[in-house]
Specification:
single chain; about 240 residues; alpha/beta; six-stranded parallel β-sheet; two-stranded parallel sheet; 10 helices; 8 strands; about 40% helix
Length: about 240
């Protein structure tokens, strides 16, 4: 940032641009924003529809049940603990027709104890590493990542491209493509379990999910890898 003349700076989200302006005193007009891009040919509702069903049967969920998907290897940093607490709150108020699928990291000892204490052993399923993440997007209904920090989470954009409304925090750069209450929900930071449970409860409604699903897919379709490459090439040229 001290090089003169300054090189062109590209931020991967509006949040990152704001951080650069705030922490490094860079004039905002010197920073271009190019959001991460995803493979929209692979991640879209039409291509994922064909693989929906088998995993849901394996998880023991029906058509009227809601599957919340969480994807990360760093469970704690990405907010697994407030997610577990939110699940307990939903159960407590009688909303039990849901599962939480956690892809990536394995539960640590204190997390396993918490899940057991809250009686969520049948509600939360840990899959560990998986080869085909698109099958998990296809068999889920809502993507949830109550992260403490993420520059611009690719999995949020992939999930939305596949038609999943997303719930994440204000400290995730990918939240810049979410219109709160339209194609997903943005919660405050640090992630609060009660606030998260409230947003998850809204998406237990099938009609609400259907409406948000179409809006999520439409929003994320604008963030293809081709668009990302094209914008960066313009800057390099």
């Amino acid at each position: 940032f001290r090089i003169q003349p300054r090189p062109k700076i590209i931020a991967i989200a509006e949040m990152i641009k704001k951080d650069m302006v705030s922490f490094f005193r860079i004039p905002p007009e010197e920073i271009a924003v190019v959001y991460n891009g995803v493979d929209t040919k692979k991640y879209n509702p039409s291509s994922l529809k064909s693989v929906r069903g088998r995993l849901r049967n394996q998880w023991g969920v029906g058509d009227d049940d809601t599957v919340f998907l969480f994807v990360s290897y760093d469970l704690k940093k990405k907010g697994v603990e407030p997610l577990v607490e939110a699940a307990a709150m939903l159960k407590k108020i009688g909303n039990g027709n849901f599962k939480i699928i956690i892809v990536g990291g394995q539960p640590y000892r204190s997390l396993e104890k918490r899940i057991k204490r809250l009686g969520l052993e049948e509600t939360i399923i840990f899959t560990g590493r998986v080869k085909s993440i698109e099958a998990y997007y296809a068999n889920s209904d809502v993507f949830v990542l109550p992260t403490y920090y993420d520059a611009c989470s690719l999995v949020v954009i992939e999930a939305m491209a596949g038609g999943l409304p997303a719930i994440t925090t204000v400290y995730n750069g990918a939240g810049g493509i979410i219109r709160d209450g339209i194609n997903g929900h943005i919660i405050s930071h640090p992630p609060d379990a009660a606030e998260l449970a409230k947003k998850m409860r809204l998406l237990l409604d099938k009609q609400e999910r259907k409406k948000m699903s179409a809006a999520a897919a439409h929003a994320a379709a604008q963030y293809s890898a081709e668009r990302n490459h094209g914008e960066i090439m313009k800057i390099l040229d």
